[in-house]
Amino acid sequence: MKTRSKLIAGIVIVFGVILVILFQGTHHSKTNKQVGEQKKVRQTNKNSLPGGAKPSDWQLILVNKQHSHTSEISFNKATVDGVQLDKRIEKPLANFRDGAQKAGYTTTLVSGYRSIQYQTQVYNNSLTQNEANGMNENDAKNLTQSVIQTPGSSEHQTGLAVDLAGKDALAKYPALMAQMDEFESQKWLIKHAPDYGFILRYLASPIARSQTGIDYESWHFRYVGKANAKYITKHHLTLEAYIDELQKADKN
Ligand SMILES: [Zn+2]
C-alpha cells in the first residue's frame, strides 16, 4: 500500500509539474506574441514613417480643390527646356531624365510651373470655347472642370509638379492621355520616379481618385523628396493620404 500511494503521489506530482510547465510555456509564448504585435502596430503607425518628415515641409505642400491657394506661391524659379519650375527640383529632375536617357528613353518636359494668372487664362479660354461650341453655361463649366483645374487648385502653381513624357508616348498622344503608359518609356518613368524623389501623383484606383479628385494621369509627377516618395509609393498612397498619416503621427 505504502509503495502504491507513494507511486500515485509521485505520478500526481510529475503530472502537476508537467501541467505547470505547459501552462507557463503557452502563457509565456502568448505574452511574447502579444508584445510583438503591439510593437508591430506602433511601428507601422509611427516609426516606419520617414524620419523627420513634417506636413509643413516645403516639398509636401498640398494643393487641390479642398486646399486651394488663391495667391501666387513665391519661390526661386529655374527654366528648363523653356519650362519654369521651382529651382530646388532642377537637379532632381535632371537626374530623373538622365536616368531615363541612360535606360534608352528620351523624355520631353511638357509643363512645369503655371501661375494662377495663367491657369485662369487657360480655364477661361476653355469655358469660352465650350460656350462657342453651343453648350449652355453649366455644361460648359462641367466640361472645363473635368479637364482643367480651377484656378488656385492646380498643383502646377507650386512649381514642384511636372508633366513629363516619353518622347514616343507624347508623339502618339500629344494631348497627354492615360494610355501613354502603354509605352516602355512612360513605364520606366512611373517605375523609377521615387528613386529621384518624384511620385506619380494621380493614381488609377477609385480610392486614389476619391482622395485627389483627379483621374489617372500617367504623365504628372510631383516632387516630394526621396524618402517621402519611396514611402508613398511602397504603401500605394496619395499625397493626401500620406499627409493625413503624418498629421496623425504628429499628434500622437
Ligand atoms: Zn500636370
How would you summarize this macromolecular structure in one to three sentences?
This protein has 252 residues and is of the alpha+beta class.
Describe the model.
The protein has helices spanning 2-47, 90-102, 116-132, 137-147, 167-172, 184-192, 206-212, 226-234, 239-251, and strands at 77-80, 83-86, 107-111, 161-166, 198-200, 220-223. It has 252 residues and is α+β, with helices and mostly antiparallel strands. It folds into two domains: 1-48; 58-114 and 154-251, 2-Layer Sandwich (Muramoyl-pentapeptide Carboxypeptidase, domain 2). It has a four-stranded antiparallel β-sheet. Strands 1-2 form a two-stranded antiparallel sheet. Strand 1 (77-80) and strand 2 form a beta hairpin. Helix 3 packs across helix 4. Mean pLDDT is 86; it is low at 16-44. The protein binds zinc ion. Zinc ion is lined by residues 111, 156, 161, 163, 220. Residues 111, 156, 161, 163, 220 line the site of zinc ion.
Please trace the helix and strand order, writing H or E for each element: HEEHEHHEHHEHEHH
Using the alpha-carbon principal axes, give the shape. Answer: globular
- Read across the widest sheet, the strand sequence of neighbours is 3-4-6-5
Number of domains: 2
- Strand content bin: 5-15%
Oligomeric status: single chain
What small molecules does this complex bind?
Answer: zinc ion
Count, helices: 9
Query: What kind of sheet is the major sheet?
Result: 4 strands, antiparallel
CATH class of the largest domain: Alpha Beta
Fraction in helix: 40-55%
Straight-line distance between termini: 68 Å
- The CATH topology of the largest domain turns out to be Muramoyl-pentapeptide Carboxypeptidase, domain 2
Based on the coordinates given, report the CATH architecture of the largest domain. 2-Layer Sandwich
